[in-house]
Amino acid sequence: MVTRLTPRVMHRDIPLDSRPDTQARPHIPLELVDIILDYLHDDKPTLAACSLVSRDWRPSTRYHLFQALHIGGDAIVGGYDNFLRFLDASPSIRPYIRSLHVSGTWKSNIAKGERCLVGPYVLVSLLDTLTALTTLTLDGVVWAGAARRNLQGLWPVKWPPIPRKFDTLVLSRIESYDRGPSQYTKSVFQILHTFGSLQKLAITDIHFDAMSWNNIARLETPTSLALRTFSMLGVSTSQAFINGLRRTQSVQSLTSLDLQCNSISDAHSFGTLIRDAGANLESLDVDLSRLTRHVATSSVSDTMRSLNITYCTALTRLHLRVCIHPEWAAPADLRSGWSYVSSTLPSIPSSIQVVAITLSPPAEVHEDADEVGFDHFFRHLLKTNWDPIALALERCQGLKEVRFDLKSNATTKRQFKEVVIKNLPVMDALGVLQFA
Question: Which residue range forms the structural domain that includes residue 370?
Answer without folding.
Answer: 68-435
